[in-house]
Write a sequence for this structure.
């Protein structure tokens, strides 16, 4: 009969610990924070949903994204210090090593996607 020490982690505990560490690492690398916006980030891209009618901004992937204004299906945002005019369906606009697209516009919210350019 083999006795295991209480201090020796089982393979399952090691796997759980590794996954928890990886999840924390992804969150730190993505570096998302927001005010008046919700973010959903991965390693190379974030979806930012801004609330309209407030000073909405988010820090994603090391840059700040801010909603400047929206009228109809055209939205003005500031990403990495540059103002962009976006419409739904247009190709991604490149700024500071990032590609920015407008996903949706409603009376309450504006959703954009910010992703790292493959060549950057």
């Amino acid at each position: 009969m083999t006795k295991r020490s209480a201090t020796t982690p089982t393979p399952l505990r090691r796997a759980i610990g590794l996954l928890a560490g990886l999840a924390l690492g992804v969150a730190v690398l993505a570096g998302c924070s927001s005010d008046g916006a919700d973010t959903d980030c991965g390693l190379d891209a974030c979806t930012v949903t801004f609330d309209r009618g407030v000073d909405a901004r988010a820090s994603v992937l090391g840059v700040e994204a801010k909603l400047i204004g929206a009228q109809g299906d055209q939205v003005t945002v500031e990403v990495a210090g540059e103002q962009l005019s976006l419409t739904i369906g247009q190709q991604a606009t490149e700024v500071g090593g990032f590609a920015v697209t407008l996903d949706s516009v409603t009376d309450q919210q504006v959703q954009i996607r910010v992703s790292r350019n493959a060549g950057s």
Helices lie at 11-30. The two ends are 57 Å apart (CA to CA). The beta strands are 33-35, 37-41, 45-51, 57-60, 63-71, 74-79, 82-87, 93-95, 98-105, 109-116. The chain has a mean pLDDT of 80.
